[in-house]
């Protein structure tokens, strides 16, 4: 482990007092902070709206690379060390199905694809909150992965939190920009970006609490979070990053995220 990261892991462990719930909460605060800071990039939208789509696509590609590596090295492999492949595979599939069901039932809006959900809700839900719902759907698996990884080991939780928090910076813009475009309110855009980041804190803390209540759930929780993240990457993030003609840059972002997460996992291993 890198000396700097080892010190950080030690500090988190000391502050949390060995409690995985507190550790998950503390680690997820980084993701919350980075999402909130990224949301402030919307300030540039008022004067530089032309190429923000590039930043969004690169950010989604970057997020996808991080989530793919984290799903395997920090979630699936630890789950397989704890439990048999049957439980892990079933939990992985259930995680993907759960996010799919949420994605189908809850109406939400994508910046490029537009509205998704029951047609009857189209006029009843404001566009800004549709966007917020979409981002929360994306952020929940990320928060779950932090909570599950932190319950397994502080070092794994730190690797996942650092990687996800880093990619949450451009994701903050992906939250605030559509809200600003839909509502015209800068304050609402910033508020929703902060709320979306906070959803990761909630998800991480709940998952860690559930695992603490029943330690036997750890392997299932790790695999469930992995399935949810892989589904988000395959069904939402990567396709969305390739819809505006920025496929090459989005692919570069994907590889950058992949390499960074792989390095973090190795450095903290």
Automatic annotation (TrEMBL):
<keyword id="KW-0472">Membrane</keyword>
<keyword id="KW-0812">Transmembrane</keyword>
<dbReference type="Pfam" id="PF02535">
    <property type="entry name" value="Zip"/>
</dbReference>
<feature type="transmembrane region" description="Helical">
    <location>
        <begin position="249"/>
        <end position="268"/>
    </location>
</feature>
<feature type="transmembrane region" description="Helical">
    <location>
        <begin position="123"/>
        <end position="140"/>
    </location>
</feature>
<feature type="transmembrane region" description="Helical">
    <location>
        <begin position="217"/>
        <end position="237"/>
    </location>
</feature>
<feature type="transmembrane region" description="Helical">
    <location>
        <begin position="23"/>
        <end position="43"/>
    </location>
</feature>
<feature type="transmembrane region" description="Helical">
    <location>
        <begin position="82"/>
        <end position="102"/>
    </location>
</feature>
<keyword id="KW-1133">Transmembrane helix</keyword>
<protein>
    <submittedName>
        <fullName>Probable zinc transporter ZupT</fullName>
    </submittedName>
</protein>
<dbReference type="InterPro" id="IPR003689">
    <property type="entry name" value="ZIP"/>
</dbReference>
<dbReference type="GO" id="GO:0005385">
    <property type="term" value="F:zinc ion transmembrane transporter activity"/>
</dbReference>
<feature type="transmembrane region" description="Helical">
    <location>
        <begin position="186"/>
        <end position="211"/>
    </location>
</feature>
<feature type="transmembrane region" description="Helical">
    <location>
        <begin position="55"/>
        <end position="76"/>
    </location>
</feature>
<dbReference type="GO" id="GO:0016020">
    <property type="term" value="C:membrane"/>
</dbReference>
């Amino acid at each position: 482990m890198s000396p700097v990261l080892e010190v950080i892991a030690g500090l988190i462990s000391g502050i949390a007092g060995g409690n995985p719930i507190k550790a998950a909460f503390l680690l997820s605060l980084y993701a919350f902070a980075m999402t909130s800071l990224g949301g402030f990039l919307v300030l540039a939208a008022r004067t530089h709206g032309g190429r923000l789509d590039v930043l969004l696509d690169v950010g989604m590609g970057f997020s996808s690379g991080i989530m793919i590596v984290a799903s395997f090295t920090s979630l699936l492999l630890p789950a397989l060390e704890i439990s048999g492949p049957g439980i892990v595979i079933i939990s992985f599939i259930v995680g993907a199905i759960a996010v799919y069901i949420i994605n189908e039932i809850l109406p939400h809006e994508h910046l490029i694809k537009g509205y998704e959900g029951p047609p009857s809700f189209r006029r009843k839900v404001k566009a800004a909150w549709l966007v917020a719902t979409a981002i929360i759907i994306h952020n929940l698996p990320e928060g779950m992965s932090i909570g599950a990884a932190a319950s397994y080991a502080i070092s794994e939780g730190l690797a996942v939190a650092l990687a996800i928090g880093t990619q949450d910076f451009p994701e903050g813009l992906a939250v605030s920009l559509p809200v600003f475009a839909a509502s015209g309110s800068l304050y609402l855009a910033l508020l929703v970006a902060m709320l979306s980041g906070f959803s990761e804190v909630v998800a991480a803390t709940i998952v860690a609490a559930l695992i603490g209540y029943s330690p036997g759930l750890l392997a299932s929780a790790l695999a469930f979070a992995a399935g949810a993240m892989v589904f988000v990457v395959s069904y939402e993030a990567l396709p969305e990053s390739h819809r505006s003609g920025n496929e090459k840059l989005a692919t570069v972002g994907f590889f950058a995220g992949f390499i960074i997460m792989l390095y973090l996992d190795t450095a903290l291993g």
